[in-house]
Every structure is written in C-alpha cells, then in structure tokens.
Amino acid sequence: MAAPADVTNEGRIIVSGHQMELGEALRAHATEQASRLSDKYFDGAEDITVTFSPGGKGAGFGCNIRVHAARGLFFDGHGEHADNAYTAFSTALERVAKQLRRQKRAMREDKPVNATKEGLL
Length: 121
Known about the structure:
With 121 residues, the chain is of the alpha+beta class. Helix content is 39%, strand content 27%. It comes from Roseomonas populi.
C-alpha cells in the first residue's frame, strides 16, 4: 500500500548540547544544514544526531555528528574550534559530507573489477 502524498520522507534530526546550553540560532542553523545534507545524499537520512560540547580541556567548542543513512551505514564527523561553535559544526559537517559522498560514489560505481589487481593480491 502506498504512503499518503502528504507524508514526508524526512528522518529525525536531534541537536543537543553536552555540558553546555545551546541558543536557538545555533540549534536552527544546525538543523537546517543537517536537513540539507540529508536531502542531498541517499534520499534522506534516517537519523542525524548533532552534539555540541566544550572543546578539549574546556577550551573552545567541539561538535560530533552521527548520520544513520541506511541499514548498516553510519557516518561520524568531529570538529573543534577555539572560538566559534558554528565553525566546529561546519568542520564536522564537511567530514560527514565527504564520507557520504565517497560512499555514494562507491555504491554507484558500475565499472568492472580490475582482474589484474585482484590477481596481484
């Protein structure tokens, strides 16, 4: 049975702070960027968890992103910055996007396996 037309295929996006309070602007920015990432790869991720925390040794900001794209596909990214939580988030998001891009390319790759390479190993 087909799903109703008004049901979206969006996954869950959780933005939280670990040992720190998050402002609404940072929460909205992280949710929007994670939603864009989800729409771009794998037709929407199932779950995205963004966690902000104080950086190493209490200085600056850290950000961890975990994306559950499909069955058995998990991608993690971490970013830190001394002064700006947005920059820490951006760094972590770039790392996750790179992993998603590479995985999607590998799954889409339709070239035959190089037999000579297999024979050498």
